[in-house]
Design a protein that fits this description.
Layout lengths: L12 E3 L4 E4 L5 E3 L9 E4 L2 E2 L2 E8 L3 H22 L6 H11 L3 E2 L2 H16 L9 H7 L14 H10 L6 E4 L2 E4 L12 H15 L5 E5 L2 E5 L8 E5 L6 E6 L4 E7 L4 E4 L2 E4 L2 E2 L4 E2 L3 E8 L2 H26 L3 E6 L4 E3 L8 E2 L2 H6 E3 L1
Parallel strand pairs: 2-12, 21-23
Antiparallel strand pairs: 1-4, 2-3, 4-6, 5-6, 6-10, 7-9, 8-9, 10-11, 11-14, 12-13, 13-22, 14-19, 15-16, 17-18, 19-20, 20-21
The structure holds adenosine monophosphate and magnesium ion.
The site of adenosine monophosphate has 19 residues, from α7.
């Protein structure tokens, strides 16, 4: 986790900076390219979706933002309550029904979430699969605190592998659904934050706030400008505290990072990342960080997870299937690849990184 270099831990703080630099895969704001002539920026750090979040907007948004931001926080809190598979709420109730083979009617918003995720699962060739919640639970990756322990026994995982749950197995009648596969358990940990960030920017826009950044645990989206240009976004160095690179957003854009270096459990002395390959239900180990830049934060969230699973040999095919072209991937050896469309936009923090990242 990086160190915050700016004032203000939870209260709003006004910063005289034209451009702010936000840690993409973390939750902390980094100052950079300070231009004291620019309008001040207000930076708030609520605790949302189980981790510290960030909301930034220009201070000259004034009253509009003062009214909108508390409603934004409560809207995000409600989404988290409804879509968290591991706490009492609509999704957990649905999982209990799916396991029992019962039919349940759900709200239109959860219907929309599941149906969009079903399309993304298919587009990702199953690398993004929110139907593997049961296996996520077996590995203990759902806990807020990732404690050390032992790996689950293969005999415990084998049924989840054999049952091969997929959202395509859901049977729908309007807003009612059921599953014949009792192993299908929904977990939107790889997707809901991205969807929530898209909603957050839409909401701020309807409230008249046109220039803002919302970051939910590395799922970040920006719109408008911090000053004369877009917002500067930092991508965390997966191997050390600090930044790997930064880029400036154009218009409305999401910068989403999935990493194996921040949420993991040490099991039998080995670091196991919280992202599972659905075909093996074992942690995906080859890439340590994947960043996707796209207009939709929801899609970028699903895609970053899928590409981390796909690994060095298969990521291009999955990126193509999901319609993402701006991608930066870093492997376990701390060498990386960046697509030709993203490469010219990146400014590496250190020339050593630039030398280790090939343009493809
Ligand atoms: P992210 O940080 O967006 O990559 O999401 C990781 C979270 O999504 C994990 O903590 C699990 O709850 C869940 N998850 C793990 N592996 C997958 C996968 N292959 N597809 C969908 N969700 C997953
Ligand atoms: Mg994701």
């Amino acid at each position: 986790m990086a160190t915050p270099l700016l004032p203000g831990a939870s209260a709003a703080s006004a910063l005289s900076r034209r451009e702010a630099l936000v840690a993409g895969a973390g939750v902390l704001l980094w100052p950079a390219l300070v231009d004291a002539q620019g309008p001040p920026v207000v930076h708030q750090r609520p605790f949302l979706f189980g981790s510290p979040a960030e909301v930034l907007h220009r201070a000259d948004a004034g009253e509009l933002a003062t009214r909108a931001v508390p409603r934004l926080f409560s809207g995000l809190q409600q989404m988290n309550d409804r879509w968290n598979a591991w706490k009492p709420g609509e999704l957990r109730t649905l999982n209990l029904a799916l396991r029992a083979g019962r039919t349940l009617q759900i709200t239109p918003s959860l219907t929309a979430l599941i149906q969009a995720a079903t399309r993304l699962e298919r587009a990702s060739s199953g690398m993004f699969n929110p139907g593997i919640g049961g296996a996520v639970g077996r590995w203990g990756f759902h806990d807020d605190v990732m404690q050390a322990g032992s790996r689950p026994r293969d005999a415990d995982l084998a049924p989840w592998r054999a049952a091969a749950p997929s959202l395509s197995q859901l049977e729908w009648r309007g807003n009612e659904l059921r599953s014949r596969n009792p192993y299908l358990q929904l977990d939107f940990g790889a997707y809901a934050k991205g969807v929530a960030v898209d909603w957050a920017l839409d909401f701020l826009r309807t409230q008249g706030v046109a220039d803002a950044v919302v970051n939910l645990g590395g799922n970040l989206a920006a719109m408008g400008r911090a000053g004369a240009r877009g917002w500067r976004i930092g991508i965390r160095d997966p191997g050390a505290a600090g930044l790997l690179a930064s880029l400036t957003t154009h218009g409305r854009e999401a910068v989403v990072t999935s990493g194996s270096y921040e949420r993991y459990r040490v099991l039998d002395g080995e670091r196991c990342t919280h992202i599972l390959d659905p075909s093996t239900v074992a942690p995906a180990g080859q890439l340590v960080s994947v960043t996707v830049v796209h207009r939709s934060a929801g899609l970028a969230d699903a895609a970053a997870t899928a590409l981390l699973v796909a690994g060095p040999r298969r990521w291009r095919q999955v990126a193509e299937g999901m319609g993402v072209s701006e991608v930066l991937l870093i492997g376990r050896d701390l060498r990386g690849e960046v697509t030709a469309s993203l490469a010219p936009r990146l400014r590496f923090a250190d020339p050593a990184w630039q030398a280790r990242v090939g343009v493809v």
